[in-house]
Amino acid sequence: MKMLRNRYLQSSIALIALVLLLQVTPALADNTPNPGVLPPNSHPFGKTYGEWNAGWWQWSFSVPASKNPGRATDGAVDCRVGQSGNVWFLAGYFPNGGSGGPFTFTRSCTVPAGKALFIPIINSWADNVCNNGQPPNPPPFTVDQLRAFAASGVIPPANLHASIDGNPVTNLESYRAISPVFSYTLPPSPDNLIDAAFGVSLPGPCWPSLTVTPAVADGFYIMLTPLTAGSHSINFGGSGPGITLDVTYNLTIVS
User: Fold this and answer.
1) pLDDT tens by residue, 19-38
2) Residue 16 pLDDT
3) pLDDT attached to residue 34
4) What was the pLDDT predicted at 21?
5) pLDDT score for 226
6) What is the pLDDT of residue 185?
7) Dihedral pair phi/psi, residue 148, rounded to 5°
8) Which residues of the chain have pLDDT under 70?
9) Three-state DSSP class for residue 133
10) 123, β-bridge pairs
11) What separation in angstroms does the CA of 71 have from each of 67, 68, 191?
12) If you write DSSP's letter for every residue of 37-52 in order, what string do you get?
């Protein structure tokens, strides 16, 4: 009798679980309004969106300015430069002075099949290189102060937009990604983003090495699952207090 009761209870629990699953599945579908875009609270490839934000800046700063897609305007760019692993980064724009706009560009590049794409809608970073603080808060600034500086470049956002092959991505304000503290390493001057955009030679009086720490970043990003082989168009951009941007990538995905 005890064995029969246990089997009955197990069957009942299994039936209840199945009913609950059938009820919950439509709700989960309703909470995924952007097919192909991983949710902002997920851990794509084992990292949070904030950790990928830090990785995006580490990649961007590691690429020489002469080859950096973030310094490109219109035309073909090399999306392979500095890339590795299952996730590739697309660049926004890194202007002289680090801010400004409006900037509107159309680029084209080739990406291997099977690569997820981490895309900056608008973003900003902060560190202590050449920060000229005023009393009572002279540099080096604290991490909390740096976070406030990074946020001031993108908050409040306006007109955030992204589309994949003409299909708009919605609710982009929820895709804000605040990085952990990170470090980044630059190529030697003059061929790095800091020198190209700000005219600051590193190592130099502003910073004693090519590695910068602490750094923090803020912004809005989407993680796009791998696209099918063929031609695709990705558009993204928006405005923050630091920048206004609209970038289109015409991608060729090759097997």
Assistant:
1) 333 333 333 333 557 889 99
2) 33
3) 86
4) 30
5) 97
6) 98
7) -65, -40
8) 1-32, 132-138
9) coil
10) 219
11) 8, 6, 12
12) EE-TTS-GGG--HHHH
At residue 132's C-alpha, the angle toward residues 130 and 137, to 5°, is 125
Residues 54, 180: contact at Cβ < 8 Å? yes
CA gap 190, 205 in Å, rounded: 15
Burial of 7 (0-12, 13-18, 19+ CB in 10 A): exposed
Dmax (CA) of the chain:
84
3-state secondary structure the chain: CHHHHHHHHHHHHHHHHHHHHHHHHHHHHHCCCCCCEECCCCCHHHCCHHHHHHHHHHHHHHCCHHHCHHHCCCEECCCCCCCCCCEEECCCCCCHHHCEEEEEEEEEEEEECCCEEEEEEEEEEEECCCCCCCCCCCCCCCHHHHHHHHHHCCCCCEEEEEEECCEECCCHHHHECCCCCEEEECCCCCCCHHHHHHCCCCCECCECCCEEEEEEEEEEEEEECCCCCEEEEEEEEEECCCEEEEEEEEEEEEC
Tokens of 6: 């246990």
Beta strands in 77-143 (DSSP E): 87-89, 100-112, 116-127
Residue 29 is predicted with a pLDDT of 34
∠88-34-61 over CA atoms, to 5°?
25
Three-state DSSP class for residue 190: coil
